[in-house]
Design brief:
The structure is a homodimer of 513-residue chains.
Chain A (H helix, E strand, L loop, with lengths): L1 E6 L8 E5 H6 L7 E6 L2 E10 L6 E4 L1 H7 L6 E6 L4 H10 L6 H12 L5 H14 L3 H13 L12 E5 L9 H10 L4 E5 L9 H6 L8 H11 L1 E5 L8 H12 L5 H11 L4 E8 L8 H17 L3 E8 L7 E2 L1 H15 L2 H17 L5 H10 L2 H12 L16 E6 L4 E6 L1 H10 L9 E4 L6 E2 L4 E7 L2 H14 L2 E4 L26
Parallel strand pairs in A: 1-5, 2-4, 7-10, 8-9, 10-11
Antiparallel strand pairs in A: 1-6, 2-5, 3-4, 3-6, 12-15, 13-17, 14-16, 14-18, 15-17
Helix pairs in contact in A: 3-4, 3-5, 4-6, 6-11, 7-14, 7-16, 9-16, 14-15, 17-18
Chain lengths: 513, 513
Amino acid sequence: MKLKVKLLGIESGKPTVVMDDEYASRLGLHPSDRIIIKYREKSAMAIVNVAATFPRKTLGIYDEVSNVLDIRSGESVEVQPAKRPESLGYIRDKILGNRLRKREIMEIVKDVVERHLSDVELAAFVTALHIWGMSIDEAEALSSAMVATGKTLRWNKGPVLDKHSIGGVPGDKTTLLVVPIVAAAGFIIPKTSSRAITSPAGTADRVEVLCPVNLAMEEIERVVNKTNACLAWGGALDLAPADDLFIQVEYPLSIDPLLLPSIISKKKAIGAEYVVIDIPTGRGAKIKTVGEAHSTARDFIELGKRLHIQIQCAVTFGEQPVGFAVGPALEAREALIALKGNGPFDLVNKATELAGILLDMMGVKDGKGATRTLLKSGKAEKKFREIIAAQGGNPEVTPDDIELGDKTTHFVSSIGSRVVWINNVAIAQIAREAGAPKEKGAGVLLRAKLGDQVKKGDPLLTIYSRTNQKLEAALALAEQLEPIGLSKRYGEKMLLRRIPTKIPHEKVFVLER
Amino acid sequence: MKLKVKLLGIESGKPTVVMDDEYASRLGLHPSDRIIIKYREKSAMAIVNVAATFPRKTLGIYDEVSNVLDIRSGESVEVQPAKRPESLGYIRDKILGNRLRKREIMEIVKDVVERHLSDVELAAFVTALHIWGMSIDEAEALSSAMVATGKTLRWNKGPVLDKHSIGGVPGDKTTLLVVPIVAAAGFIIPKTSSRAITSPAGTADRVEVLCPVNLAMEEIERVVNKTNACLAWGGALDLAPADDLFIQVEYPLSIDPLLLPSIISKKKAIGAEYVVIDIPTGRGAKIKTVGEAHSTARDFIELGKRLHIQIQCAVTFGEQPVGFAVGPALEAREALIALKGNGPFDLVNKATELAGILLDMMGVKDGKGATRTLLKSGKAEKKFREIIAAQGGNPEVTPDDIELGDKTTHFVSSIGSRVVWINNVAIAQIAREAGAPKEKGAGVLLRAKLGDQVKKGDPLLTIYSRTNQKLEAALALAEQLEPIGLSKRYGEKMLLRRIPTKIPHEKVFVLER
């Protein structure tokens, strides 16, 4: 059937068209059915949105489709119902609890990347994966398919190392230390990171305080060839792009069944051969117990093996923020101070342990010792500045150059006592309320950590913000949330949580990779 | 934050707005987050679509939202992030396999009807319901919630009877006989039906051949008060409207976990107190075995009890179309002929059995005998014509008045043999290919049914269409699908299905209520 095109001039997020109900019905189309649109030599598949009030015999085209067809309003296109994608049958199989085969998973991931699946279908797939789980064969197939449907980087030198944290702990700027240490040791580590989705800072947000992170593929190659490393944003590189599309439906549902394949596929796409995975563990972390961490580690190692990536996992203490700083600029500053030799003990310890594991994997004798030497000698700092320079930042930057929010206030202790717990989620929420990650200078500086003695009136947190309004909102939130638990001795305060008659249904979900 | 409104003039199917990525980010919004829009005294909740190329500081508003706010382009609105709906937490609970409480289900259904949930969230809920199933308590809560969130009809006379088929068998025009029979017996039966979604005709499509079916609530009351019955389209009445929204996500996924609550809630909303449920059973029907039918019947009866509806179920033979006609006009004609006393045996048998069950429930002695008398005496036909007249049709209509597709052809038998099976799905597909249900005169007339002897060259099907093109397409499909199985004796042809190396993944899903 021939229809006249009307460009809508709007993005809808997927290839969508609008059609009036009468003509949709003539074509036998229901909402969310698909059509093939032919225009000259080009053709595109689109999902149909049926509208009661749209002009008859007209096809309303969103930007995603008009960009493919390169078409103007008023032109005529040939429209026909599309065959139901084969992948829909496989999604249905997964809903029914069947195991999917490699070829079937490839078909699904291909249709995800080509935007042939609607939100409804994607959501059903992700939900079914969450409920049924996936076998290691399925995880392997998903990882491979996610690599195959995106760009990949291959290096003609090697070995290629990488580091990844499954996330969930605020203030974790460890990557900013690990990458220059490993590169200073002479190894290649082309690190890509994400921005924050629900947290106060992603690694890309932290690095962006010091230099551009939005690098093209060729720039990454140039930077790595020059410095052995990079600290780039991975979001626009088209590495395992299916993941970003899965995240769009995982986010509103607060589920993350694709965590392992997502991470492994990104590592494979960047060409990594040896990877250390950080699994922060404990109350307030994604993984609650060491037992659970073991089982996750086993899956990572096996999945890595199948994709020819050698993986070791580090189960790390995740019950409080790493270091003291939470928020992009505060964290970049803390990382820089640490590289200059004055970092908080836990941050330095975590970075040298993780980097040490990578050096151990490379056969370096006493990997951890080597990393401490690289840090103390200033070689890691020098390497960090090389990377900053190569990415277009100022290599001479000092901690004092980093701009923080100029409005500050303290959240103080109401008693003299000892810090017995820190609520990660509350700290993250307060930092976000202050404006992080969007406002780079906003965030929270912890003034006391687990086990520290505090006097009445001592600051527990210093909050940084750009506006007084946000500063006050963050302080009010801190007063409401009890982010830091105080007691004379650990284990004396007996009430862990009070559950009132009306159960508040607020779980904070951390979706960061 | 204040934003300038730009009306998009398009329906998107749900309350959606578009915003540029920079301002979305300033508000801390991710795609599929919700906002509250305030304009003068009005406010609306909408789901945010983030676009890279949309004008800055502008809120693009689809029709669903502009209709609520009654606003013009260029006006200014106050926008703030909305709280995450409480129902999302409960959907998540269902994904995790928890049983939901009455209050929680009410919250979900309310948010469905108020359009506060996105497609992603609805799809996840329906998928989780399909995988985990629902307890009878959950089914009751869903039914009650679906009634409570829509309109209801209450009758000041009674008892109120109703009939429903779970569907799946083509040519099932039984309702067109049952309703006038029951009404002629002096009982009230306010029947609402759906149009076809994936089948060649729904009851509303069949009745529409004879009279209008798109009645308002007051018209239904008037017609029922006058004639004891109606045969109306239920789609625009706002009876249990949540169901129509669930169907929109069930359709692309080909799953139907809400079948029972959907049916029961529609019956409750119309005020039914005694209902007979038809469960067509057998190969090619929705329910394959009598055991399965029993278990479905038990659930219907229990669920009915909880909503104070007395239910009896009829397990009927579902392995071939009912009567000979498939397609709206062909079926209306066959029903009219049957009411005049010359109907096919199976159709008359099914109608009198179902109507008989209802009369039995009313304490009528020999209910089935009574229905046959009502049919033979012409009282049922007279009642049918009263209903047609009351709904605005021509009460004098004769079978010959009904217009059929004027292009016809035969699908003939290539051998002399006997009909040993009929493929319901193939028959439905051929009728749809011929133009049904959109073209009312299109469809298929079966010329032989199970057990019938046919000679080589005898017609098996007569296909009716409005255009030669569709006629030929339907005939070609018939030749391809083998809709009618021929063999000298039942059980002699041993190959049930051949499964080739590449398994075709085409399952036809029937979603009709």
